[in-house]
């Protein structure tokens, strides 16, 4: 111990007695710290609007607008108007697409967005029965900067959101205008269904009288003798009865013509929801394809920015499918209800698949999950198509068939009645041939009675369907909402689901998040520079008698540790007082910085002590490996396998984890566990340095001699 203290006292005396030594020590304390401070400040808020707003992205609007079905719109103008109020990116609006593309090619702009001439026409193509997906043109300069394309990716997301909002807002306004016109003309959809149901019910009751009349006429044929006695009176009265019934049936045909115009209102809600679902599923096809070929960074960007949005969107579609299944089941459409239940289950599988995705997954792990999500998405699209077909077949088609059968029955009955009237006229003129005429009349009346009973059953069922639809207040509520708050409906449809975000261990800015990495990196660099500038070897002196290996080792190590503690105090104080990073436990932060420097000094000292020049190279290699693979910038899960394997053995990991505890907040004993592991690294370095010194001595001397022989190396 005496020799160790003598070495330390002698080293301090030599330093204080030399101006160059003092300046060198000051440089060792300040230069690495400046590296940490400047890097933290340069990364203070690179992804906030104040910074990204200086990233130039050109916008060229070539859209000529379009008019279809009385609806005029220029989506390009709406996009430009919306982007003008968006400060996340530095939008630069240029005159034409040539200037925008040329600017990206030359590097004047990081990216460019071109809205083509037929963009609005593509948006409104569905009104003409031709579904065309409109496409924006996006150009990007990946050579100019590595990170800029990831930032400008926000531009694509912003534009897509603005296009969707403009499209939904326009459609909502169009529907609202149509509802206003209908209301101005006194057309209440709810009342229209009720009136139509009442008219059909009246027709059913009138048919009861017709059936009774036909049965009575059949009974009259049994009294043929009495018929002859009163033939003139019978023929006249019966002719009047047929004429009155013909008038009733003519009115019934007019009512059926009105039914055809109103029978689809029951299906509007189901059709709209399933069409919205189909549209979202088609949109996600592109996302799934991109995910399958996406880089790790793009994959993680999707998880950060878009995965929750898609989970929310699929959850909304699933809820709608559940509601529609329940509603249709209550209305008696069991087969169609089961289709919606199957669609809901498939959407649930997609949601589960998206939630399984994790940043810890490499490509091989996430590929089957993404493929399964894509397959489920295809299955959901197939189900939506089957549901649309089944709506037409089970409901719309059956309703149309019922109406057609009713019309056919009415027409047939009118013909029969007309034939019976002619038969009576012929009977009046030819009483001599009454037998044949009476037989024909009997057959006609029996057929008429059967047809009337069938017609009455059909009209009764149709009346019940329409009455149920009129009693549902959903149509009334939707009509009232569209008529009174168009803007609110448009906003809701464009953004149907909000999200409440709750952050754990919140960090105020990106610079504070990066402070652990750059601070730890500066401390390692400081330790490495110390090993380069301060000798490990000790000259023999009279006051050092019988100097043993461990005394030599710990004697000079004392100077290293002193420099390390000074470096730690300067860099930690600068982080807190000059850079002003967020820190919930400043005292623990300073303590940890001192421990980090002690551990890093001991590791680098041991390498140089045992391996001399080779040790310096090893310190540099360890530094490079830790910079690349310690998880300081990118999560270790996205790094190549070699770095994930070495990660548990990197001192940077535990030093940064402990610093994050001080900056973001303490969790359990994480802080102390990390310090304990760092101290184990220090103990291992001592054993390594002393154990390897003697075996490596000859190798070190050979390398030193070879360097001297070159006459160009220190």
Give the mean pLDDT: 77
* Uncertain spans: none
Q: What's the gyration radius in Å?
A: 44 Å
Kindly report the spatial arrangement of strands forming the biggest sheet: 4-1-5-6
Q: Helical stretch count?
A: 25
Helical fraction: over 70%
Class by SSE composition:
mainly alpha
* Biggest sheet statistics: 4 strands, mixed
**End-to-end C-alpha gap:** 33 Å
Kindly describe this structure:
With 714 residues, the chain is mostly helical. Helices cover 76% and strands 4% of the residues. It contains 25 helices and 6 strands. The chain has helices at 2-16, 19-42, 49-52, 75-84, 97-106, 119-123, 148-184, 189-220, 224-229, 231-262, 268-292, 296-305, 307-330, 334-356, 363-429, 434-471, 474-484, 486-494, 510-533, 549-579, 586-611, 613-629, 641-646, 651-664, 670-710, and strands at residues 56-61, 66-68, 71-73, 90-94, 111-115, 137-140. A hairpin with a 2-residue loop joins strand 2 (66-68) and strand 3 (71-73). Helix 2 crosses helix 20 (549-579), helix 19 packs across helix 24 and helix 21 (586-611) packs antiparallel against helix 24. The longest helix has 67 residues, at 363-429. The mean pLDDT is 77.
What is this structure, in a nutshell?
With 714 residues, this protein is mainly alpha-helical. It is built from 25 helices and 6 strands. The protein is 76% helix and 4% strand.
